[in-house]
UniProtKB/TrEMBL annotation:
PANTHER family recorded: ALPHA-L-ARABINOFURANOSIDASE C, ALPHA-L-ARABINOFURANOSIDASE C-RELATED
Catalysis: reaction(s): Hydrolysis of terminal non-reducing alpha-L-arabinofuranoside residues in alpha-L-arabinosides
Keywords for the protein's UniProt record, in alphabetical order: Carbohydrate metabolism, Glycosidase, Hydrolase
Top-level taxon in the UniProt lineage: Bacteria
InterPro entries: Alpha-L-AF_C, ASD1_cat, GH, Glyco_hydro_b
Listed Pfam families: Alpha-L-AF_C (PF06964), ASD1_dom (PF22848)
Keyword field contains Hydrolase: yes
Protein name in the entry: non-reducing end alpha-L-arabinofuranosidase
Assembly with partners or alone: Homohexamer; trimer of dimers.
Length: 517
């Protein structure tokens, strides 16, 4: 049996988790909107067409902020198409996903849905086929109280009060050739700066995220961030990051190690942003918005969204069925985000329903939880508070992670991957300390002894694990609970020391009560 040792101390803090770290993403893509969150006529739908069963699962998942309407989709989107009388809205070709967009769901419906789901909206503006003027007009429509053409248009459409959207993305993945009207870093940096200026002149309370690289493997990664921030450093609060972990190589140890490359990505972007600050002798710190992250590979390389499907409305594309090992890699990504809570102040699980999503639906039928639902729910429910530094001493393994880039593959030798990946959060208000622990050893139990200093004597609140004997097991409509959390037995606590045995290939949550200390 393998053994790991951990020390955490109440006084050694990484940072507070921003509530927006627990966000998700709804794009007009496949059945995410149509047949996902919105399905008029579904037995659980309300008078607005919002599926009640999906809303209940979203509330249980507990995302805090939802990015909308894309993604690649936003780079060709005319927001005006999605407001006003539904019968007058145009049907349009969506070149991002080779689909027909009916526009029966748009910005105002999204705002209502956010209210129903108890989440904050995050809007992206189209800096692909459109530009700063369009961004200015959308902001005026959404956030200006009234007395101007566009704010009065919103009121005439039935939304008297401004939507008050605080968080805005300046385009999407503008470095990618798949993007409608991709830009060079200089072109994008200029346009993002001008859009930011106009938007903040209308509403100085908003926060803006500039596009970073679409992935760490982009050939322009690094220089893209540097150039873009050189242009818009004074005008934005965030730079974005996107990562989709993959197991194309069918190599589970390397797949589970790949979340550690998210740690590298975050630290590299922080270094570049701070270098831009240093060149200006600026104390300002650009924060990170990890506004797309997930596991995605089965429905990706086939590029099935772009095949000639005959321009269908809401085709069932990108409907990745997640298995047990995906949930583990996904849990590793959650830990990377938590452990960088000082700089990653916003993050969005991509996406929410049906398209690479924790929630699946059958059109006209039921909704169910995928395996990745559970680590996200744990992170959002129990990750609020101060993330503590961890001193981890764990046995390690060696692997090589492969990641595709275009037609070539990049390989990343990973010589010292700790079997234990861990984050610890002091949930201040509740008097609870939560340990999130991933055992990446596929065959052996890992005994973990943690000293939790500074909280006095601890007692066990609750502990559970996500584990399945078959790493390829999945939840389906007919077997929706094949993978689900179970109680974690055998947690031993002596004073400030916690001893726990983690099953091979398992995600674990241990909640310690530190009340009265
Ligand atoms: O989330 C799916 C797609 O992945 C998004 O539309 C795009 O931004 C990214 O490439």
């Amino acid at each position: 049996m393998k053994e790991a040792h951990v020390i955490v101390d109440r006084d050694f803090v990484i940072g507070d988790t921003d509530p927006r770290l627990f966000g998700a993403f709804v794009e007009h893509l496949g059945r995410c909107v149509y047949g996902g969150i919105y399905e008029p006529g579904h037995p659980t739908a309300d008078e607005r067409g919002f599926r009640g069963d999906v809303l209940a699962l979203v509330r249980e998942l507990a995302p805090t902020i939802i990015r909308y309407p894309g993604g690649n989709f936003v780079s060709g989107y005319n927001w005006e198409d999605g407001v006003g009388p539904v019968e007058k809205r145009p049907r349009r070709l969506d070149l991002a996903w080779m689909s027909t967009e009916p526009n029966t769901f748009g910005t105002n419906e999204f705002m209502d849905w956010c209210r129903a789901a108890d989440v904050e909206p995050m809007l992206a503006v189209n800096l692909g086929t459109r530009g700063p003027d369009d961004a200015r007009r959308l902001l005026e429509y959404c956030n200006f109280p009234g007395g101007t053409e566009l704010s009065d248009l919103r009121r005439a459409h039935g939304w008297e009060k401004p939507h008050g959207v605080k968080f805005w993305c300046l385009g999407n993945e503008m470095d990618g050739p798949w993007q409608m009207e991709m830009k060079t870093a200089t072109e994008y940096g200029r346009i993002a700066t001008e859009a930011a200026k106009l938007m903040k002149w209308i509403d100085p309370t908003i926060e803006l995220a500039a596009c970073g690289s679409s992935s760490r493997n982009m050939p322009t990664f690094g220089s893209w961030e540097d150039t873009v921030l050189e242009h818009c450093f004074d005008h934005v609060e965030f730079i974005s990051l996107h990562t989709y972990l993959n197991n194309y190589a069918d190599d589970t140890p390397s797949f589970l190690a790949s979340a550690d490359l998210m740690d590298s990505f975050i630290e590299e972007v922080v270094a570049i942003a701070d270098a831009v600050a240093a060149r200006r002798r600026s104390a300002k710190r650009i924060m990170l918005s990890f506004d797309e992250w997930n596991v995605w590979y089965r429905t990706r390389r086939k590029n099935e969204g772009r095949t000639k499907l005959g321009w269908p409305v809401a085709p069932p594309i990108l409907e990745e069925v997640y298995d047990m090992q995906d949930a583990l890699a996904f849990g590793g990504a959650c830990l990377s985000l938590l452990n960088h809570a000082d700089r990653v102040k916003s993050a969005c699980l991509a996406q929410l329903v049906n398209a690479i999503a924790p929630i699946m639906t059958e059109t006209g039928g039921p909704a169910w939880r995928q395996s990745i639902f559970y680590p996200f729910r744990d992170m959002s429910r129990f990750g609020r508070g101060r993330v503590l530094q961890t001193r981890v001493s764990s046995p390690v393994y060696t692997t090589v992670y492969y990641d595709p880039r275009g037609t070539s593959e990049l390989s990343f030798p990973m010589p010292d991957v700790p079997y234990l990946k861990l984050a610890v959060v002091d949930n201040l208000d509740e008097g609870t300390v939560t340990l999130f622990a991933l055992n990446r050893n596929l065959t052996e139990t890992l005994t973990v002894e943690t000293q939790v200093r500074g909280f006095g004597a601890l007692s066990l609140g609750e502990a559970h694990e996500l584990h399945h004997g078959d790493l390829k097991a999945t939840n389906t409509k007919d077997r929706p609970d094949e993978i689900k959390p179970a109680s974690l037995e055998g947690v031993e606590i002596t004073g400030d020391r916690v001893r726990v045995r983690l099953a091979p290939a398992s995600w674990n949550v241990i909640r310690l009560s530190a009340r009265g200390n």
